[in-house]
Amino acid sequence: MPILGLDIVKSHLRVTWQNEDQLIGIYHAAAEGSAVSFLNRKVYNDETEMAAAVEAGTAGDDPMVANAEFHAAVLLTAGHLYVNREQVVLGVTAVDLPMGARDFLQPYRVGLGV
């Protein structure tokens, strides 16, 4: 189950129509999956959901509840995927903006290894 609702993602993208919901849903799922993979931990909507996963033994090591930084990173990533629909863009200058998705997630990343 997604952590952010489709309505919030669409609001971030400034999309009010429904004919792109499936596409936005794919970008949304990819953005959340990417954030969770980068963090190397499972992320839950709230304490109750996380506690149930811990009790069931499915929470993994060091689970966390989604915070504002996680939400912002997901929205930034979904926005990037929505606006940049091709792998290569010609004839433009691209710059990573400060305070990108990974900047929000880095303090919560675990298990980096040696």
Automatic annotation (TrEMBL):
Transmembrane segments: none
Cross-referenced InterPro entries: Phage_gp6-like_head-tail, Phage_HK97_gp6-like
Protein's name in the database: Phage gp6-like head-tail connector protein
